[in-house]
Amino acid sequence: MISKQPICVTGGSGFIASHVIRELLAHGYRVRATVRGSIGHGQYGYLTALPGADQCLELVQAELLDDGAFDSIIAGCEYVIHMASPYLLDAKNVQHDLIDPAINGTLNVLNACKRSGSVKKVVLTSSVAALFDEPISGHTYNEDDWNTTSSLSRNPYYYAKTMAERAAWDFIEKESSSFKLVTINPAVVIGPSIVPSLNTSNKIFSDVLSGVYPFIMNMSWGFVDVRDIAKAHVLAMESDDANGRYVCTSEVLSMQQAVNILLENGYSHYKAPSLKLSGFIGDALVKVLVSAQAKGVRSFIRLHVGRDVAYDNSKVCQQLGISFRPVKQSILETVHDLIAWEHIDG
């Protein structure tokens, strides 16, 4: 399927969005991507340098919370991939910095889609944060799970992602039957970056290698490669059968397993932690020791330490036909990229 109209991608300068743009261009699509900054200052050269961008990429400045800002941008588009949303574990003003952009920005885009009369499908980037904020050991999370415990004061980033996705589904149910909605719910997204700035998820590994963590915590993450997530967005857009939510994760690794991958593959000279704190006493000690961390990071660690997490990714694999890269490959390519961007010393 090659749409004659441009595919609209909101938040085009982001870590995941830049890969989605590259994937779309590689498939021969025209792309109209929104960014916040001025187009003429060359700050988006990493996007305009992508293969095919000179002929098929249009950058448009837009503010997510400006009413009607997306009407002219989305007009005539058949497909919209909405990715613009802040990724902040810590925010000074939670309502202003996280909740409003996530919810109201999503509704602004959906209202523009409705008014356009041309949009057939919206692919929304959500997160496994919309599934839970404190994993239940022994439970395997899938598309039927919803986060019901996050709030403005408890894991506010998780709350923002949950409320934004719920607002989108409520909109479809109550306001519009003219277009279809599909959501992509990735776990921790890592991998080589097109964007020069250091993103929050890749920062896990720069922190591990830079000595930010003095010990190995008893916790785990579900990881997925950014290139696979980009592919999932495009497949969800292209497939007529795509429906509902898609949990996207490759593998779950404990912090110990992630550190071992680094130590066994040439990074033993870095400041990776060696002391492991586990068991009831170790987990309790971690919760005390992280008191000096920023509120969002502290909340995340306290709600995850000592708990196992598991995901069922069968829906996205079976319905969209995607296969995920091994996490070891993604981690090593992430670290190589962090060195190339000079986020950590080589």
% residues in beta strands: 15-25%
Q: If classified by CATH, what would the architecture of the domain at 7-197 and 222-253 and 309-326 be?
A: 3-Layer(aba) Sandwich
| Total number of beta strands | 14
Gyration radius (Cα, Å) is 20 Å
CATH homologous superfamily title of the domain at 7-197 and 222-253 and 309-326: NAD(P)-binding Rossmann-like Domain
Provide the CATH topology of the domain at 7-197 and 222-253 and 309-326.
Rossmann fold
Portion of residues in helices? 25-40%
Largest sheet: 7 strands, parallel
Major beta sheet, strand line-up? 3-2-1-4-5-7-11
**Count of helical regions:** 13
CATH class of the domain at 7-197 and 222-253 and 309-326: Alpha Beta
Low-confidence parts lasting 5 or more residues at pLDDT below 50?
none
| Net shape | globular
Straight-line distance between termini:
43 Å
| Topology pattern, helix = H, strand = E | EHEHHEHEHEEHEEHEEHEEHEHHEHH
> Would you tell me the structural class of the helices and strands?
alpha/beta
Mean of residue pLDDT values: 91
